[in-house]
Amino acid sequence: MIDILFYIAAGAAVGLAIGLTGVGGGSLMTPLLIMFGFPYNVAIGTDLLYAAITKAGGMAAHARQKTVQWRTVGYLAAGSLPASLITAQLLKTVFIDSAEYQTILTRSLGVMLVLTATVILLNGRLKSRSEQRTSAASQFIQRHSDAVVFCSGLFLGVFVTLSSVGAGAFCAAILMVLYPRMPALHIIGTDISHAVPLTLIAGLAHFLLLGNVDFTLLGCLLLGSLPAIHLGTALASKLPGKLLQTTIATMLLGMGIKFAVF
After folding, report:
1. Which ranges of 144-183 does DSSP label H, i.e. alpha helix?
2. Which of 87, 106, 166, 232 could form a disulfide with 170 if both were Cys (CB 3.0 to 4.6 A apart)?
3. Considering the entire predicted model, what is its pTM?
């Protein structure tokens, strides 16, 4: 019973942070579960389904507001969903048990945490530079945008499946660079609308192929986080969200380096 209350509290803490700062749950929840002593594979598999469920409401809201670029979502998903399934199948086929691929998960988690933290810390500069891109570069991206988006989906499919991190802030950064004139709300809506099917498919693959999901833990996390997300969103305008976001990103950067190197 104490453990269950502890997991609910952990879900509430992450949900509050998501509501206050907008930092994705995957980059926060997976390291937290690992710190609690859960195996890397269970933390990642459970967190993927947690992300799919917590982001689903945001996807529905953006769809109603017509702030989703569905064509872009389609090209991202065309790369990411098959890549996710193939990645999970390779883990099942090549390795006998989860202990044999723990190093792959650890390094992938570290790399994606570092990339996500860097994107959060440099978000303003990234947007400014993408808007000031030369016309030649813009024309090149425009001519090959579908291929670039598809390849980005492949990358995300592999590394989100291996780490549970990257479907949020990192994917949004990719969209910002590729489409500097896309309104910020459309970037968020497109990002979330791709993240939901990707994390759902990756989470189900972890469950069905690898057995890496703890449903008791998942239920406790959701019980704590869903109301806390709404509370954090309501408090966001009253607290220094940018400072909190920078603090969390710095922590993620430190944890990412630890997972990637040690």
Report:
1. 145-163, 169-178
2. 166
3. 0.88
